[in-house]
Amino acid sequence: MRSIATAAVAAILALVLAACGGEGQQPQAGSSSEQIAIDGSSTVFPLAEAAAEGFSRTARGGARVTVGESGTGGGFRKFCRGETQISNASRPISSEEMAACASANIQYVEIPIAFDGISVVVHPSNPVNGVTMAQLRQIWQPSAERTITNWRQVDRSWPSLALQLFGPGTASGTFDFFTEAVMGDSGSSRTDFTPSEDDNVIVQGVAGNPGALGYFGYAYYEQNRQRLKALTVDGVAPSPETIASGDYPLSRPMFVYVNAEALRRPHVRRFVTYFVQNAATLAPQVGYVPLPADAYAAYGERVAQGQTGTAFGGENEVGLSIQELMARPLSAGEAP
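Above: the chain's sequence. Below: its structure in token form.
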């Protein structure tokens, strides 16, 4: 009888604790206290998604990781409001975004995670094989709006085809970097093009139009190279080698920014550590160029120590090589 009574008491206590929400219990994996919200660049999205999926399969996973793609600018807006723990970015944090985070007392750890090259693509039937940076400027500058509407207007040897343009939306870090690199002024662009934060929409637009021209991250070209043709830029084709060396004019690093306060939480630290330690394997799987092993070791140490700040001072850097990236010291994450 005593054993039965003891069992009954134990059962009642268990029911009481359950009704009270299990006060004093450790949070269960995947509970609201172990969620990680990531948003930002559509370019970085495939890499972050691969990291999230890989992490979920590990014994030390368990946290619920959600990955959105509202564009680099949209991601930073959420990040600097404290709505996400990690922000994916296809360009460095801007001075305006630095100020927004500072005003909200949000510090961040900047982690270069891989290299990319913006691919300029056309329909496979288009006989044009390459463009110069000057020709890209002629096509995309604001004064070209409703004026440069045919390929032959740019180069008389090019076909007489109606020029239809596709590109990322203005909240995209790819848009910011491309306009900075081509026009010398971030955000300076004609507006009569079809924008989308979804790179697959740009792929479909260019693949379905013989006179189309568009641009997006190298991974999306790699995934669709049977449907598209990538143009050389100043005589250099995008490839893992030319992107890594910086010889391709539209090479750029990609980043993840981690909320420093969130990084103190064990499940966030586990995920970010997993991401950095596995990026060298994940990056080429989704079409990007990995950093050297010593770079990932250095950035892993940055995560371990929670070193905050940025190496870019709120500015884009065009044509940066991996070696130049690794040599950059961090500065305080405050707007200049």
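The CA atoms of residues 266 and 286 lie 27 Å apart.
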